[in-house]
Each structure stands twice: as C-alpha cells, then as structure tokens.
Amino acid sequence: MESHCLKRPTRRQFLSSVAFTVLAGSSGPVLARSISGSLPWEARSADPPVQVRPGGWLFFTPEEAETVEAIADRLVPADELSIGGKEAGCAVYIDRQLVGSFGTSSRLYTKGPFMPGLPTQGYQAPDTPAERYRTGLAAFNAWTRDNKGGRRFAELSPDDQDATLGDLEAGKITLSNDVDAKSFFNLVLSNVMEGFFADPIYGGNRDMASWKMLGFPGARYDYRDHVTKHNQPYPLPPVSIAGSMEWMSR
Amino acid sequence: MATILPRKDVVIIGLGWTGAILAHELTEERLEVVAIERGPWRDTATDFNIGYAQDELRYAIRRDLFLQPVVEAMTMRNNTSQTALPMRDYGSFLPGNGVGGAGVHWNGHTWRFWDSDFRIVDHLNERYGPGRGADLTLQNWGITAEEIEGSYDRFEYLAGISGKAGNLKGQIQEGGNPFEDPRSRDYPLPPMQMTYAPTLFAEVTKSIGLHPFPTPSANLSQSYINPLGIAMGQCTMCGFCERFGCANYSKSSAQTTVLPVLMKKRNFEVRTNSEVLHIDLDVSKTRARGVTYVNTSGEEFFQPADLVLLCAYGLHNVRLMMLSGIGPIYDPNTGEGTVGRNYCYQTNSSAQVFFDDKNFNPFIAAGALGQTVDDFNGDAFDHGPLDFVGGAGVNCIPTNGRPIQTRPTPPNTPRWGSAWKQATVQAYKATLGFSSQGSSYPARGNYLDLDPTYTDRFGRPLLRVTFDFPDNDIRMSAYVTSRMEDIAKAFGGRQYVMSPRKKGWDSVPYQSTHNTGGAIMGADPNTSAVNKYLQSWDVPNVFVVGASAFAHNAGKNPTGTVGALAFHTADAIRQQYLRNPGQPLVSV
Description:
The complex is a heterodimer.
Chain A lengths: L10 H7 L15 E3 L26 H14 L9 H4 L1 H9 L2 H4 L24 H19 L10 H13 L10 H17 L11 H6 L36
Chain B lengths: L2 E2 L3 E6 L3 H11 L5 E4 L7 H4 L8 H6 L12 E4 L7 E2 L28 H4 L1 H9 L16 H15 L7 E2 L2 E2 L23 H12 L5 E2 L9 E2 L5 E2 L21 H4 L1 H4 L5 E5 L2 E7 L6 E7 L5 E11 L3 H11 L16 E4 L2 E8 L16 E3 L18 E5 L20 H12 L2 E8 L8 E9 L5 E6 L4 H21 L3 E5 L16 E3 L23 E3 L14 H17 L13
Parallel strand pairs in B: 1-14, 2-3, 2-14, 3-11, 4-21, 14-24
Antiparallel strand pairs in B: 4-5, 6-7, 8-17, 9-10, 12-13, 13-14, 15-23, 16-19, 16-22, 17-18, 18-19, 20-21
C-alpha cells in the first residue's frame, strides 16, 4: 500500500465520529485507497439504511407540517383501498428527505451561471427542494388565507381542498414570490408518491399499506417457485427491508 | 505540484467491464498494471448487500450507485442554435460510478451487432445501390462480424450469458434469432424460464408471422462457473436489476466475473476514489507519458506508464481525450476533426396493453428476462420501398414491479385522489408493456465537444452534448412503432396505448444509457479517432475502449459489443502491440 492512499474508515468508526442525519444513502466521506493482492472485504463496512422514526419535525415548521399532511391526505385519500397519506407517514418521509442530500441538492450540479432553459434541458433554477418547500408552502398558505376567508389549507373542507389542489396542479392559481404553482405541485406530488410507495423504513408507507394495496411483495428476493405459475396470484404478503409485522414479537 | 510515482507498464483509466477485462488479459503477460478509478471500491457482499439491496428509493430514485452530477455533469442542447445548459441532474441517461462502472447496475441484455452494422456503408451500397442514408454520416467500423465473432464468444462465456443460438455456423436454429450472424457455438447457458408477459408476447408475435426468441441475458438461468473459475448463482427473478447491484451473484459484472481473480494478482493494483485529470503527452504530442490524477485529499499525482488504456464510460473517454489534446476535435461546420464525431444514442418507443382478466405478477422479473423479435431490426427487412435506413428490436422484457416508478395507468387517469388509486390498483398487475429499441444513426450536427461556459469541480470544461434524433431515425421509429401497433392489437386487451418517439431529445425522462460514438473506430484516420484495434491514430500508446468506438448505434444494447471490443483490443495488444510497443498497429 502506498503512503498517499489512506484506508477508508469503517462504518462503525464513521458512526462514532460524526453526528449525522439518517437518510437514504448517507454514505461516509470515502477516501482514496490502493488495493492489490486480495479482495478487500472488511467486516462491518456495509452501509445499511437506518429506520426513520416518526415524532417531531426536522425540517418543517408545525404549520408547514400541517399543510403537507393535509395535502398528502388528499393526494392519497383514505378509502377502502388504503389508509390516507397523512396516516401513512408521507409528510414524515418528506421532512426527513428535505434535511438530506435530496433537500439540499448536494449531489446535483449547482454551479452557475443559472439561465432559463428549454423544457428539454430540465430544471435550471438555483433553489434546492428544501428552499422550494419553504417558499412554496408559505406562498400556498398565503393564497388560501387571501382567497379562502383567512383559513389555512388544512382548515378547508376536503372538497375545497381537492378543488384548490386541482387549481394548483393546473396552474390556475398565481402564487406570491414567483412560486410556479404547477412546478410546486409536481414536486409535492412526486415526493408524496415516493413516500407512499417506498420501503416503510423511510417513514411513509406505514405497515406497507401501499404494497398490500397493489399486491407488491416488497423486498422478497426469490420468486423461482412462482415464475411459471402464469396468471396466478402470488400468495405471500409483503416484507420490508426491516422485516414484516408477522415477524415481530407482540 | 504533482507527486511523481514509480513507473508502471500499463495504466488503466476506469475499472468497469473493459478495464477489468483488459487488466486481466495484460497481467497475464506479466505486465505491471494499475487501474485508476474515480469512484469507490464496490463488492457484492458490502455494497449490494442482500439485506437491503431491494431498496427502490435509495438505488432507483436517489441513485446511490450512479455518477453524481456534483462530481461530473454534462451540458446539453438539441442543436447548435441553442445554448447548452448543464443537466443539473442526470435523467435521460445515467452514467455509472465506482468499481464495476455501469456494468454494476445494467439490466443484462447482451447482444451481438451484425456484419451489416460493421460494414454498414458497404452493405447498404451492395443491397440497395449508392445513396441510401445520404443525409447521415454513416461509416464502416473497419472490422467484420467474422473477425470479431471469437471476441463476442469470449465475452459471452466470461459472463455466462443465457440464450438460444439462432444461427450455428450458418445453420438456422429453431427458437433462436434467425437474423443473427453465424456463431461458432451456442450460449453457455440455456434461456431463462419465462414469466407470463413474454410468454404471451411470444405466442402473439408468432401468430402474426414474426420470429420471437428469448432475449440473451446476463441474468443467469443456471449456476455457472466461468472460464476464470469464478462461480455465479442462478437468478431468483427478484425484480431489482437495472439501477441495482445484484446481491445474488446472478447478474454478470466485473465483480462477478473478473475481479475475484484479478484482485489476487500481485502485478495488479487499483486506486479508488482517484480521478484522472488528463493523460500527459510528450512534446511531440504523439506519445503518452502517463496520467495525472487527484485523490480525495486534493493531492495530485503523476503516474508514468508505457501504455495508457482509456476504459471509462464512453462519454468520459471522449472528454478525457479532449482534455488531454489527443486527436483533433470535431467541427460540425466543416465536418473535419475526429474526436466528438458520430455521437449516437438510441431511438426508442413503447406500447402498453391493458387487460381486465390477466395477472402478470410484474414483480417477478429480471432485467433481461423476456422475448425479442428482430424482424424489424437493422437491415433484417427490405428497406427498398422505405424512406429510411435502420430498425429496432422489439422487446417484451418486463423488468420490475417496483411501485415508485412502475405504476401504469390508462390515459386520462387522474394523477391523485381516489380515482387515481382505483385505476392504479386495477392496472398494476394487468398491464403488459413492450418496447422498441431503435438504431441511432450519426448525423453531422450530432456531436460532443467541450462546453465553453460550465466547468467541473476542478475547473475543467464539462462535456457538451449536441443531439437530436435525426429525421431518418424518426421515420424508422414511426415505421417500427406501427408494426408494434399490429402486435398490440393482436393481444386483444381492453385497450392499448402507443408512445412513439418524437423529435426534440429531452434530457429529463429516462430513456437509455446507451451513449455511443465520439471516439469512433474506422479505417481512415481522417474520419475516425481510433483504428480497428481501438488504438489512437494520433497517440499510438493510448487505446480507447468502450462504446465511444461505435461508428453508429444499432437497435441493440451496447454491452455485448463493448465486451467483445475489449477482448479484441486485448488480443491486439498481447499478440501484436507488445512485440513492437509504441508503434501503430495499422499503417496508413
């Protein structure tokens, strides 16, 4: 091993030395290294995800959280097919994502100059998702206060909420601070759906509600005994990376 | 100042498929080989761990295993009248990162290109007379299918490909692809067991006179020990292939086919998390002295070497050539220059058939588990009366039922609310999709160069991609898509929906990580960057290996040809170059 090449710290060393926020793919600072003569497998060097626990908000203010939960509950309403987006934990999921690499755009190319682009060139604004939620939610609640008798979005009736979200989706609402209604709606919609359909370890999809609804078996990894059973329902319930409710002691 | 390191015989830039194959071959010659890899070390047990590999959010949405734009982005525009802007997030294509490269998270479709691809100009002239494809910049590759057959064979046996031969030494085989060129022997493994959707696709396409066959797959149908003695396991069809590393040693990659042997060799070393900044040339600009790279602490090193192998992703190969001053950069105004020329992509379209009474269990899947018809691919069909050249493979390869991304719904379904939910649940198991993977032929205005404005974290210019689908390819795709509509109708479902390819390449929605060209191979140094052995015409001790060498892209996934070219290059270096190092293998 050459002197300039430092050994990567193990996951455990990293855990003990750095205070970090638990998110998808929160991998440690990886250092250059030289490897020769053997496969460099190391015990305890894997990087498993860490279960999100509900309770408290890391990013949202209480009013923001209330709004996002109310939106999530209309995008994914409780009905005979599943629980609603709020109960499923979609807002908790988004809250945790917004304090991680997604919220801060830390993996993206964020160097200027920033110029308006063509649709084929994708998102070109400097604002991170965290900033877009902060300004977008403020502008959205300001709009409902101005147009819905001083009420916040969460205080509207479900029908009124649906109509308001429909107008937001269609860009019929003009929001303050140059917030683009359609693009804000699309951001929230895609994040709510991520939370609802992702593994429950990330805070949404409580009790694998969406997977049970679809019949998706989750993190199973061997379907060899069913592959030729064409057109026949798969018999087993879903499992999460964290396991299954049936495996837990009660 | 860069620290000068002890000399090596060979330095390899990038340790993915091609880097690993070449490192293995050249260490067999007892050469001292070092690979310099920008990303981290990756192995199955640690990084594609069975306990948490099946995580759609982490790997498919947040893309943990991919190149992150903060490390290297690219700019894009559709034509030279536009200003290129950075793809701030990758979307349309997703380059890999780390040991194993994009070969870690591919699906595993493993094709051979045809003689009518390698000799495309000659072939079209012979069959149709001169003038076909005149609006394109088609070029011969400088090789024939016969010449590279043995290299394809070696890659398929290294990787344990599952499939059914369609043409054994000129004899057409029932159940295989009747349009393929002769192969010397069958695939090492039989085809995978078919799931329901491809089984139905095979029945339906056969009933209308087409020739379905099992897609050649790097997801293993059986356990396998490859020629290096490395064992792999049978695919369990977990449905987490593309965008994921395989936790089960069932998808071929550098990790599962080469590294366990390569890493034990004392004359091989890999330096990870180390990014090559450029290849250093001597004053004559005709000889490479080695490479300069930077580690994670920002320290610079100069690694001297006699032979430099550029084995990064094709697009990165092209950029590193430009940053190093190897070869003249292509100019679309004059058509001159070789580096950046003939950038091509893939021209795809898709179809969905919605049923009421079927359950496809979409989560029982593998990346390359499916059926293909090649009746409309390449020049398998008569283009005489048609106004285009090229074609597409039509594939029914349902790769997954991962619900963040795979939730088909019929047109006009709301995107949220109770009606959305009902339609989503109804369609989840009862929808069959199939797609065309179309050829992408070169055009004068589609090219790669360096961006004048945007730079990477070291201040070097980003690669600029100028691309739109040529009119020829749009006409090709429209034709094949209407043939797909014939198939969609024949399924007899409740409803079908066609999604044709349109002009205006959009960098946002995912389409294909099959970026080809930019450092193309050929027989003429005025129109190609590398010769038929992938050796730089300009700097003969540099070889540039990868899909960057494709003179155009066929209607097929590139990895089989990339792997074959790696063996083809390895043979040329071992059998010819090392006898007379530093000299061109092809004289002009």
